[in-house]
Every structure is written in structure tokens, then in C-alpha cells.
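Help wanted!
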Amino acid sequence: MCENCNCKDERLDEVKKVIAECNGDKSQLIRVLNTVQEVYGYVPTYVQKVISEELDIPMAEIYGVITFYSRFSLNPKGKYNISVCLGTACYVKGSQAVLDKVKEILGIDVGGVTEDGKFSIEQTRCVGACGLAPVMTVNDDVYGNVDPSKVKDILAKYE
Amino acid sequence: MKTIAELNEIRERVAKEIALRTDRNYTGREKHILVCGGTGCTSSKSKEIIANLEAGIKANGLDHVRVIRTGCFGLCAKGPIVVVRPEDTFYAMTKPEDVEEILQKHIIGGEVVERLLCKDVDGSLVKSLDELNFYKKQHRIVLKNCGLIDPENIDEYLAYDGYKALEKVLTSMSQDEVIQVVSDSGLRGRGGAGFPTGRKWQFAKASENEQKYVACNADEGDPGAFMDRSVLEGDPHTIIEAMAIAAYAIGANKGYVYVRAEYPIAVHRLQVAIDQAKEYGLLGENIFGTNFSFDLEIRLGAGAFVCGEETALMESVEGRRGEPRPRPPFPAVKGLFGKPTLLNNVETYANITQIILNGAEWFSSIGTEKSKGTKVFALGGNINNVGLVEVPMGITLREIVYDIGGGIPNGKEFKAAQTGGPSGGCLPAEHLDTPIDYESLGAIGSMMGSGGLIVMDESTCMVNLARFFLDFTVDESCGKCPPCRIGTKRMLEILNRITEGNGKEGDIEKLENLAMNIKRSSLCGLGQTAPNPVLSTLKYYRHEYEAHIKDKKCPAGECKAMTQVTIDPEKCKGCSLCSKNCPVGAIHGELKSPFEIDQEKCIKCGVCIAKCPFKAIERK
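Answered by r_m:
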């Protein structure tokens, strides 16, 4: 069940399936959280409660793990999550200017979400496509050899 | 479960099927089209290329042609890469829509599609992979199967002597003999520190305990480095086989591979490989009918650089915050779940099967006196041939940058190379002829590191580069020990004010003082090495720091606060391209006469510099 009503929460079922596969093994907490992050796009509090009960790990500890690892987020991301690579190879080729341009166009900072919930920005350290530097991604779409003048056209595709 | 005879039968059969990939004298009709399925090429649509090829082959009834998705070829700058064998035709920067032409003209018509051939840095057309200067000085041991086999097909791995080393170890060698071979080979840890691998195995074996573990560090966090990822994506079985060998040698029966979740392709291929190895009985109970049993599991990271540190990695495998533990006890005594654990890095493991099969003497004949074998580098930054290279130890930086890397693009000068990422240092132009080995790099204030090698040209400000790395460490410091948590933050604040033009007298001395204290008193390797980028840039580019602080000038013209973007009226033709592209409308002028930049409005973004066809705009 989801937190607000009694509707069937399929995403939670998926998470519970993975929890069941862990057989009570607490050391698999990060695996479970990776699943939650993928399924929900963030780690909602009510799912943390479920994990806490099923794996018998205190909420505080789960919170500690979530906030430690940069992949986990406590808030939902935008429908289109924009990620600009600030790995060394991209940085040397000018990715900071690309990031600044994205921030300027969307009017939000790194970690923020636009008011309509459409876009969010994050910076990442190396997506491993250094041959395409500088790189930015919008959800699963990868854009290589980006310069600030191309940012507007890229974002326009998702309007 | 397969017997040794059955495995040999597969090896023989598949070796024949794929011989045309390496046999340049093959005269048969069959063709294999190899398409790179590494992360870089996948990002630029190699998946679609494969799909189009398969569809085209079917539509044209080309039964003698096979498409194989391989691991990384190395020359990422030219991706997506398509290679047709046996003729070894190398198509670069291929697009999904080029597939039809390749099939019609080359495969059916027998004529090479010249338009798609790769151009070398000197502009010459390259017909075959072997001709490329990029490959000529490389020596491939770790990457031997990358770009050659289908990583998701265990039979192809078997065909190139796969799992023969494990068979040899389990059926004819004692634990001590295995460790002896690894020790004699002179192999040292490829994660960066260079600890002798054989000795590490000895320690782990010497620890008495019923339960021991082997673990593989695939948490490649150094930004700009992708060696380990490429091995996992291109040849995952070699890691499984090597870990099984290590487990046998030290007396473990369970292994963990700790991989970054940011590497989905690598994780997927490793899981496929593990499942296949289990199916063939190469993982599991009583391998090859011996008493040796070994099980392997993947554990995912979740984006924390510090988890590359061995004790933090173990905390994370156990499902907790990745905060380092004090050492001793070392992992060989008390590691995962409190049990003796052997931890090696991906590239270290990737050498093992070849050492077992070819012998310690063969391996130690490659490289220098104290650094044996090869090293894989991820070549990036301001260099023509961005990509993955494997070179024998002892090669000079000059050979890597100019012969293999093809030099610096846009006619600019080499300024420095950075190795070791946030823990390493810079190699300036005067050290271009330094041999690449653990001792030589350490002696000039850098380190081998895990293999990231970022090349920088004259337009890179070294103070800003140091600031970039400190910004990274501050972000990634786990916060457990104060010298790292607070010290790096203070260093970053000083570097920030220097690059913003507010540096004060005495800042350099403060940086040096903080650096020494952080190095001495931090708990783990992250903090102990965090000041290195500052110390090494101070050693070679102190004058740049001084110029920022005293003259308020950035000699490289990178630090925005101290630069102005201006148009040279001599060179400007008044084409108005700059003003059309300026995001803040700061450029004005009349067509066909020189334009001007309003410095009040200019945000120094540099778009105009990139757009100007006459190179009339400069940042000074």
C-alpha cells in the first residue's frame, strides 16, 4: 500500500521482492537502496520505514547511509535530470562553463528542481565517456562535445 | 558443469570459428564485424549500429557475416568504432545511418568505404588497425581480449586459453607454488600504491581462519579514469578466473567484487559472466572435481570516492557508511566481516592468468627493474588520441603523449600531465622524458596512481587545477577525521580566494603548512594524499601562484576574475557571429568593422572565443 491511500503500490512490491532476496542479510542494505533509488527516483521516508522493519536496521542508520552516498537522494528529482560531468577530462575541456549555462537557463542551482518539476541539475564525477568530453546527460541520453552555445538547443528537446 | 575434456572441445571448436579475427592470411568467405560496446561508444550509439547491422545482414541474406559486440578498442576519440575482419578495416566515428553503405559497398561489393576510414593525427588515411600509431608502442596483456572477443560469451573467452590458468593451478600447483609465481613475477598493486602483490597474498594465506575472503576493488573513483571499467566490460571472465586463483592460493571460498553503480554496463557483463561460469562449473562447488569451491558475488557502490580506500570499501560491502577503519589490523588479518581478506584492484587481477600461464620469468622480462609488466592508462584532456592505452613500464611520458597520444590538439603546447587524480601530482614539460614506473614518478613528486593520465595544454591554470582537485576532495571527504574534513576545506577556501583575485601575502605558506599537517595526521589514504595536487603544482608552478597573489594576474588566462575577454580590432572582420552568440548581449558593432565587448556586461563565458572564425577574440 502506498502512504496516502490504499491503492496498490507496485513500486513497493518491487522493492519488497529485493528485500526478500536478501534473506535478512543486513549487509545488503546498499543494494536495496539502489533499487529504491532506481524505482522511485529518490528514497521516500515511508519506504525507509519498510526497509527498517524488514531488515531490522534502525531508521537512523538507514538515514546515515542514504546521506553518505551521492547516488541516493531524499527528494524527488525532476522529470528530466540533467547531469553535467565535472570529471577531470571534462573539466579541462570546459564543462564548468556548460554547467553554468544550464544553471543560468533553468534558473536553479545544482541539486535543485525547477518549479514545474520538469528539470533538475546535478554534477557528476566522470561518466566514463572521456572521449566525448565535455559530456552532459539528460536522463539516459548522453550528449558529447557540448559547449555552452549548444545547451539551449539540447534543453529545448525536452520542453 | 563441464569436464576438462568438454571445455577443451569447446576451446578447439570456437577457436576455429573466430580464428579469422586474428589470422591476416585467412582466405575463407566469412567476415566478422566487431563493434565497440564500451561505455564511450555505447553513448554515441554503437547499440543502434549493431541493430542496423544485424537487420541489414538478415535483409540481405548475408549468412557468412557475424556482428560481435566487443569491449573497448581503446581509441575512444574515434568512436564508435567498427572493425571488419579478417581484412582489419577500421571505420571511425561511424553513425547508425552509415551501416547500409558499409554493408552494400564493403561487405557485398568488396570495396572499402573510404569516407569512413579513420584518419591518423597526421591526416593520413588508416586502412587497418595495425597501421595506427596509437597501437604501435602498446603492449597488451591486461587488455588482450578487449576489442577481440564478445565479453558476454564464455566460449570465446575459453577459446583464448580462458580458465586454463585456473585448471593449471587447481590440478598441478600447491597454494605456495601459486604465491611464489606471483611473487617472482614482480607484479605490484595497480590501484596506485604499488604494494607487491605476492607479498599481499602471502600475508592473507598466513592468517589462520576457517573463513577467508577475496575481494576485488572495482570502485574506480578517480575522475577521468576508466581502465578497470574497460576490463570489466571487455573481458569480465579474466577477473573471475584470477579471483578464483587468488582464493585457492590463500584458502578462501567466497569472493566479492565491489563495483561502482555508475558502471551499469560493467555490472551487467560481470553478472552475465558469473552466471555463465557457474553454469560451466567454473564457479561453485568442487571446481574441476577438486576439493576447491568458490563463490563470487557483486556488491554495488553508490557514489562515494572514499570507498576506493580498502577499509572504507569493506565497510561499504558490509552495508554501512564507507568510513575508513584505522589500520592495523590490516585486511589480511581482519577484513570483511572481521575475517582475513585479500583485496586487489581489477587491473592487478587482470595480470594473474597470464602470469600463471606464461610464467613469472616472462612477466618480469617486461618493464623496469622494480616495476614489472605493463600499465593501463586512461589518456584524456587536451590530447588528440583520447582513449585507453596499455604500455610497458619504463616507457617515457613523451612517448605516451606524442607517439601514442598523437600530441596536443589545436597547435597548442604541452604544459603538464596529471597522474594519480586527486591523490597525485603533475608532471611538467621538463619531466617529459621521465620513465613511467613507481619509483621515478614518486621521485618527482607525482605517483603512478590507478591510471588516469590527464594532459593539459598552456591554457590550463595550475592554481585552478589544484583548486578543482581540492574541491573534489572536500566533497568526497567522509568526515570521520578532522584533518581531512576541516583541513582540506581550509585549503580550498584559500585556493578559492587566490583564483578569485583576492589572494593575500602568506597564503602560499599557509597552504604548505596545512598540507603537511593533513598529510601527517589523516586517517586514511584519501586525506594523506589530498594535498598532493597543491604541493606538486607549488613545486613546479609556484610562479603562477605568485602571479595570482601579487600581480592579480592569471598567466594562463583561465581564472575569470582576473581576465578580460577582448576583440583584437586588427583581426576582427566584423562578421557579427560573436554578437549573435553572446548570451548576455555584451558585444556590439557595425558589420564589416571591428566589434567591441562591453566589459560591464560580459560574463566571460567564452562562447564568442569558440565561435569566432578569425581567432580575433582572446582571454587575457
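OP: Thanks! One thing I noticed: Residues 80-156 of chain A form a domain with the Glutaredoxin fold (CATH 3.40.30.10).
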